[in-house]
Automatic annotation (TrEMBL):
Cited PANTHER family: 2,3-DIKETO-L-GULONATE TRAP TRANSPORTER SMALL PERMEASE PROTEIN YIAM
Annotated protein name in UniProt: Tripartite ATP-independent periplasmic transporter DctQ component
Cellular component aspect of the GO annotation: plasma membrane
Subcellular location: Cell inner membrane
Transmembrane stretches, start-end: 12-38, 50-67, 88-111, 131-154
Source organism (scientific name): Thermodesulfatator indicus (strain DSM 15286 / JCM 11887 / CIR29812)
The Tripartite ATP-independent periplasmic transporters DctQ component domain, residue ranges: 26-157
Length: 163
């Protein structure tokens, strides 16, 4: 189980590294676009489109890492009023439900990607990007997020009820 958790955490860390790379690329794309418009009065015509696609990847790949680092916003005002055993049970039920919901979203986002691929859907832009390419970020992100939630659930269960 520890090996599985380490693999999932490595995937989350890799996603965070890719998110950082996409952030840098978005910044670079915007700087190039501003420079081209200011100096040469021209445009790449695809900067905003590709930046938006990279932003989706940035967010989706960052979800699991953010969860791993406990950086998602949590409303836990009521949790502190509960005893440790009930809090542990409630936390694990929440993680299990989150895992199920994320798998559901993963499945349907995967169906969307497959439909876009089979219908050869393309962006209505000059690049005519096949839409399945940026859409792949959704199932990848939701799957890695679901796996990170599962890793947390397995860690909680293996540690047992806190004393």
């Amino acid at each position: 189980m520890k090996k599985l958790t380490k693999i999932i955490e490595a995937a989350s860390n890799f996603g965070a590294a890719l998110s950082s790379l996409f952030f840098l690329l978005i910044t670079l794309f915007i700087l190039v676009e501003v420079f081209l418009r200011a100096v040469f009065n021209t445009s790449t015509l695809v900067c905003d489109e590709f930046s938006a696609y990279m932003f989706v990847w940035l967010v989706m790949l960052g979800l699991s890492y953010t969860f791993k680092e406990n950086a998602h916003i949590r409303i836990n005002i009521l949790l502190f009023r509960l005893n440790r055993k009930f809090r542990w049970i409630l936390e694990n039920i929440s993680l299990f439900l989150a895992f199920i919901v994320l798998l559901f979203i993963f499945y349907h986002s995967l169906l969307m990607v497959l439909e876009s691929y089979h219908l050869d859907m393309r962006a209505d832009t000059i690049a005519e990007t096949p839409l399945f390419i940026p859409q792949i970020a959704l199932p990848v992100g939701f799957l890695t997020f679901a796996l990170q939630v599962l890793a947390k659930l397995l860690q909680n269960i293996s540690k047992g009820i806190p004393r």
